[in-house]
């Protein structure tokens, strides 16, 4: 973390103001100057879409949106838009005013601009899946276009998530790359 950002944040998360382990987050696009924000690690995974957004974890946004730091304002606007189905977030968005330039920045390459754009893959038991996880088949599956049958209990290692479909992953069974529905999987610990 550079000295200027450390001095500005005081070592705290610039969003929730908690004294926790903070990391530098670059608010995209990089065409805007001073686009770095100090955020706590607990929020970073939600900002980046690696974890589902927990509305209760973001209740501080109506305070954070009034920050004098443009990058913090942009990030607050984007997360409020992600949570706009929550009444408190909708109310905050109604009263939030951003300069035209900052609003254009917030709308450009908006991480998590719409909650519907967030794809979270979960196994048949509700566990969140990540790229590289290992899973176990909970049902014997016949692979379309092949005479391969993936048996119940088969371990599929190093899975890849299908980007635009939360119900599918890719994995290798008997050396063949196949698409598997997440409802027939259990994450292996």
From TrEMBL:
Q: Which Pfam families match?
A: YjdM
The keyword Hydrolase appears for this protein: yes
Q: Which residues form the PhnA protein N-terminal proteobacterial domain?
A: 4-48
Signal sequence span is: none
List the molecular function annotations (GO) for this entry: hydrolase activity
SUPFAM superfamilies (alphabetical): Prokaryotic SH3-related domain
What are the alphabetically sorted keywords of the record?
Hydrolase
Q: What is this protein called?
A: Phosphonoacetate hydrolase
Q: Which species?
A: Parapedobacter indicus
């Amino acid at each position: 973390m550079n000295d200027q950002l450390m001095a500005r944040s005081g070592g705290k998360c610039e969003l929730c103001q908690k004294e926790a382990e903070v990391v530098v987050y670059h608010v995209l696009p990089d065409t805007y100057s001073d686009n770095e924000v100090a955020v706590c690690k607990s929020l970073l995974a939600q900002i980046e879409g690696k974890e589902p957004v927990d509305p209760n974890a973001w209740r501080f946004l109506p305070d954070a949106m009034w920050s004098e730091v443009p990058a913090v304002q942009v990030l607050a606007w984007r997360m409020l838009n992600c949570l706009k189905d929550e009444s408190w977030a909708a109310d905050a968005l109604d009263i939030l005013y951003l300069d035209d330039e900052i609003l254009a920045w917030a709308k450009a390459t908006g991480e998590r601009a719409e909650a519907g754009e967030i794809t979270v893959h979960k196994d048949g038991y509700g566990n969140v899946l990540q790229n590289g996880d290992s899973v176990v088949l909970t049902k014997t599956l016949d692979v379309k276009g092949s005479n391969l049958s993936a048996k119940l209990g088969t371990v599929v290692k190093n899975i890849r998530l299908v980007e635009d479909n939360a119900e599918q992953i890719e994995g290798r069974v008997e050396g063949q790359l196949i698409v598997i529905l997440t409802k027939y999987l259990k994450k292996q610990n």
